[in-house]
Amino acid sequence: MKGRNGRxxxxxxxxxxxxxxxVLLVPALExxxxxxxxxxxxxNDRSTVRGELLAVQENNLIVxxxxxxxxxxxxxxxxxxxxxxxxxxxxxxxxGFAAGAVSVTLLGITSHRILGSDVDPIxxxxxxxxxxxxxxxxxxSAGLLGGLLGGVFTSMDNWKICRFDNRSSEEIEANxxxxxxxxxxxx
Length: 187
Known about the structure:
This protein is of the alpha+beta class. The protein has two domains: 10-31 and 88-154, no CATH class; 38-86 and 159-182, Roll (SH3 type barrels). Helices cover 50% and strands 22% of the residues. The protein has four helices and six strands. It has helices spanning 10-30, 89-115, 124-154, 169-182, and strands at 38-43, 48-57, 60-65, 70-74, 78-85, 158-163. A six-stranded antiparallel β-sheet has the order 4-3-2-1-5-6. Strand 2 and strand 3 form a beta hairpin. Helix 1 (10-30) packs antiparallel against helix 2 (89-115) and helix 2 packs antiparallel against helix 3. The radius of gyration is 26 Å and the shape is rod-shaped.
């Protein structure tokens, strides 16, 4: 297909909304109820509280433990807080798919335009269709590979540690700021 300037590329413009629609649809499908981060609080007496961080209220952390009970832990009693940051497979997969598909498709289109073609005019239309199909197939293949790699690398969980023992009030407040963002309820 020809674009506005008579060169091949009109079909790329037709495929672009489909690719963008897919990239925008995946995060919308995964959106759901907000959950707080999973935390392990180690108290000064070495006991631990595990559960979901519900809220950070002034100098207290409110955690729903395994028995579904709310536990209030004062910052004065906390030695450190380990926060599990969950990876997000679908977000990484959609970004990887978009990056792979768009970059390889654009590379294929620009290389075809730069290299040109010395094909007999009778076969030029067939050559354009073959080029279009090869660009689409390699773009989708690169998109699938990028989606797989992006999904795998972003789905890995990691831990963040916030220390509270022997800290000044400014350092404690600085540690509470990211915890407020990770809580289910932002008070």
